[in-house]
TrEMBL record:
Residue ranges annotated for the POTRA domain, each copy included: 22-89, 90-170, 173-261, 264-342, 345-419
Alphabetized PANTHER family for the sequence: OUTER MEMBRANE PROTEIN ASSEMBLY FACTOR BAMA, SORTING AND ASSEMBLY MACHINERY SAMM50 PROTEIN FAMILY MEMBER
Keyword Heme: no
Quaternary organization: Part of the Bam complex.
CC per GO annotation: Bam protein complex
Protein's organism: Methylophaga frappieri (strain ATCC BAA-2434 / DSM 25690 / JAM7)
PROSITE patterns in alphabetical order: POTRA
GO BP terms, alphabetized: Gram-negative-bacterium-type cell outer membrane assembly; protein insertion into membrane
Protein name: Outer membrane protein assembly factor BamA
Length: 758
């Protein structure tokens, strides 16, 4: 007897009843095209020899539908043979995307493959509908609310289908209006200036600030909340937000309903808990005072200051909670900082990662926090800053992690990102008269990862031929005393350097030492020897050069001794944002040589952040030199010069100061300086650590021995500059406009220096 059971949908098989039980003698599967019989057998809950019951039939149907390979399943019995007839679902032969401009087709294909919708997979209508909804969500997140997605499924031979997804993206919906309701103390313009979203401006095509984003709106709501809480509005709330879209789906309208509440002041500030440190000392770290306007930012800063102070005594996980007691009748707040220092912890281990080239010992010798000692968060940060100042790393981070299974131990994990420490640096200048001038130097500031400095210079420009070699060991002793030496041979044609009609040949060298005298201060000493041969051009027209040679000769031996002091508290040696670097050097050619002279120079670079993205910088470079003893005046080839990308930008290098026969002479008094506002690249979602821009104001000049300082002779310039610590080395560019150039001054608007690294 043949019994036929047909199941068209899964909801129907539960009511099916098997009229007669029998022993399965064989199993036959009919209707297969792509799926193998073995695959079907793997899904069956029965096998040959089993007794088939009504429940087994339902289990067969359920299992095969669950495999998602089949549209229809029929179960029959034929003289002891279990017959299963199936209708396979089609396979996806191809997927085609049409009209997608914002979303790359390859990325779409990759994403759909991860959810099982790909060529060769079984086609499911429900899955296609999920794909359409996900695509719609993706376009909504890009502000294209008018997107239209239509799918076409085309049957093909051998039970296959082709899927074509047509996308009409439409235009990006922009914010038509942002309304803030409930603000009485601050007008709409002030609040709208504080948030990122806007109705657009002339740069919106770059910033995209007029495109609606749910995440951006959430961030803007928190910004408004912080705005009010930092100005005393303790009860401020965002009551609701409404976002509506125009009928054509091209504009978004946002309404933010707020309740400002009343403004509160601080009545009393207290410290409570286990204070550890003297109470008076801790109070000095609290930045919010009695009668001040309530400010969440000031409270958070105070909590952070207290936490840092406790961390200096070994309490790395101190917890400081600010608890306000609000009196709404008087609109006053009593603020209590509850201090819980936790357990004191010591450092078990200092781990270093990311240093593929630099040896661990080079980094460890900069650490101020020691292993097996109580943790001091200030010393931990000092170590991070000292490693940053080495100039070997683009980024240095430190993380404090508790040791599992202990309550009083931590590990410090320093993670560094190395930058190229070896470089072939190039200086390139351009002018209408001389074209391009090139010079190069080879430097390895971290030789073989040892921290030792190796320098080899070769310069073969039109005006300067130099061969030099130098070596410095910054840690010749465990106390940080440095030792090194330099040797050089240099030929200079001053005429090609924008100077005058003379040339020099100099052979020399020195040995040098550096001694740390405090955390950020060093003194140095260099003992040198120089042999100089001077040659005046036949075209020389400057009488003072002739007089000097007549008086002193044209070959000189000199023994320069240089004493220096350096102070460096910058947070980074390459692109600092805070701190100061100062340097004083005093070079004197001592008796025993043919020339006696001295040169005193002071350099200062000061950086201070004025916001999260802006840094204010000041630069000063002062110098004074003169002859003494048997040398009546400073040798003219030791003069200072000004102008150029490292001096007063906008003026050609080495051309400022007094001139004779239209040739710059330099001087024995140098005064230059400048101010800059440093900022990241605008309109970028993620700032580049290695690239930044600045606007600058430069000032300076050099004064001859017969001149005294005259502020009226200073030259000024302003402009924009860029510096990039690229994989090819440091690159700097400037565009400057001289503000008070005089007749005879040589201007150079665009200046740059390039480099490459290895």
């Amino acid at each position: 007897m043949r019994k036929l059971f047909t199941v068209l949908a899964l909801i129907c098989f539960s009511s099916s009843v098997w009229a007669e039980e029998f022993i399965i003698e064989d199993i036959r599967v009919e209707g297969l095209q792509r799926i193998s019989a073995g695959t079907v057998f793997n899904y069956l809950p029965v096998k040959i020899g089993d007794e088939l019951t009504d429940n087994d039939v339902q289990g067969i149907i359920r299992s095969l539908f669950k495999s998602k390979y089949f549209n229809d399943v029929q179960v029959e019995s034929d003289a002891g043979v279990l017959v299963i007839r199936v209708s396979e679902r089609p396979a996806i032969s191809s997927i085609e995307f049409v009209g997608n401009k914002d979303i790359d087709g390859d990325e779409l294909t990759k994403s759909l493959r991860q959810i099982g919708f790909a060529e060769g997979q079984v086609f499911e209508q429900a899955m296609l509908e999920r794909v359409e909804l996900e695509l719609q969500r993706q376009y909504f997140s890009r502000g294209k609310y008018g997107v239209d997605i239509q799918s076409e499924v085309t049957p093909l031979s051998r039970n296959r289908v082709g899927v074509r997804i047509n996308m009409t993206e439409g235009a990006v919906a922009t914010i038509g209006e942002i309304n803030i309701v409930g603000n009485a103390s601050y007008d709409d313009d002030e609040l709208l200036d504080a948030i990122e979203s806007s109705t657009g401006g002339w740069l919106s095509f770059i910033t995209k600030d007029n495109q609606y984003s749910r995440q951006r709106l959430s961030a803007d709501l928190e910004t408004i909340r912080s705005f009010y809480l930092d100005r005393g509005y303790v009860d401020f709330t965002v009551e609701s937000t409404q976002v509506t879209i125009s009928d054509d789906k091209k504009q978004i309208f946002v309404t933010i309903n707020i309740s400002e509440g009343e403004r509160y002041k601080i009545n009393d500030v207290r410290l409570a808990g286990n204070l550890i440190a003297p109470k008076e000392e801790l109070f000095e770290l609290v930045t919010i005072r009695n009668n001040a306007v309530f400010s969440r930012k000031a409270i958070n800063d105070s909590s952070e200051n207290l936490t840092d102070r406790l961390g200096n005594d070994g309490y790395a996980f101190a917890n400081v909670n600010a608890v306000p007691d609000i009196n709404r009748e008087t609109r006053e707040v009593n603020l209590t900082f509850f201090v819980d220092p936790g357990r004191r912890a010591y450092v078990r281990r200092i781990n270093i990662s990311g240093n593929s080239k630099t040896r661990d010992e080079v980094i460890r010798q900069e650490m101020r926090q020691q292993e097996s000692a109580w943790i001091n968060t200030q010393k931990v940060e000092q170590g991070r800053e000292r490693v940053s100042r080495l100039g070997y790393f683009e980024d240095v981070n430190v993380e404090t992690l508790p040791v599992t299974g202990t309550s009083d131990q931590v590990d410090l994990n320093y993670d560094v990102t190395e930058t190229a420490s070896g470089s072939i640096s190039a200086g390139i200048g351009f002018s209408q008269s001389d074209g391009i001038i090139f010079n190069a130097n080879l430097t390895q500031r971290n030789f073989l990862g040892s921290g030792k400095h190796i320098r080899f210079g070769f310069n073969n420009s039109d005006f300067n031929t130099t061969y030099s070699f130098g070596y410095t060991n910054p840690f010749a002793t465990i106390d940080g005393i440095s030792q090194g030496f330099n040797t050089f041979y240099r030929e200079i044609d001053a005429r090609e350097a924008n100077l005058a009609n003379y040339s020099t040949k100099t052979l020399g060298g020195d040995i040098n030492f550096g001694v740390p005298i405090s955390e950020n201060n060093r003194i140095s000493l260099a003992l040198g020897y120089e042999q100089t041969e001077l040659d005046l051009s036949d075209f020389n027209t400057i009488q003072r050069y002739e007089d000097f040679i007549a008086r002193e000769g044209d070959k000189f031996n000199a023994f320069p001794v240089t004493v220096g002091w350096t102070s460096d508290s910058r947070d980074n040696a390459l692109l600092p944002t805070r701190g100061m670097e100062q340097r004083i050097t005093f070079e004197v050619a001592v008796p025993g040589g043919d020339l006696q002279y001295y040169k005193l120079r002071y350099n200062n670079n000061w950086y201070r952040p004025i916001s999260d993205d802006l840094t204010f910088a000041l630069r000063t470079d002062l110098g004074y030199a003169d002859g003494y003893g048997s040398t009546s005046e400073l040798p003219f080839f030791e003069n200072f010069y000004a102008g150029g990308i490292r001096s007063v930008r906008g003026f050609r290098a080495n051309t400022l100061g007094i001139r004779e026969d239209d040739q710059p002479l330099g001087g024995n008094l140098l005064v230059t300086g400048g101010a800059e506002i440093i900022f990241p690249v605008p309109f970028m979602r993620k700032s580049l650590r290695s690239f930044r821009l600045s606007t600058f104001f430069d000032v300076g000049n050099v004064y001859d021995q017969d001149q005294s300082f005259d502020a009226g002779l200073l030259r000024y310039s302003t402009g924009v500059s860029a510096i990039w610590i690229s994989p090819f080395g440091a690159m700097s560019f400037s565009i400057a406009a001289p503000l008070n150039a005089e007749s005879g001054d040589e201007k150079e608007v665009f200046q740059f220096q390039l480099g490459s690294t290895f």
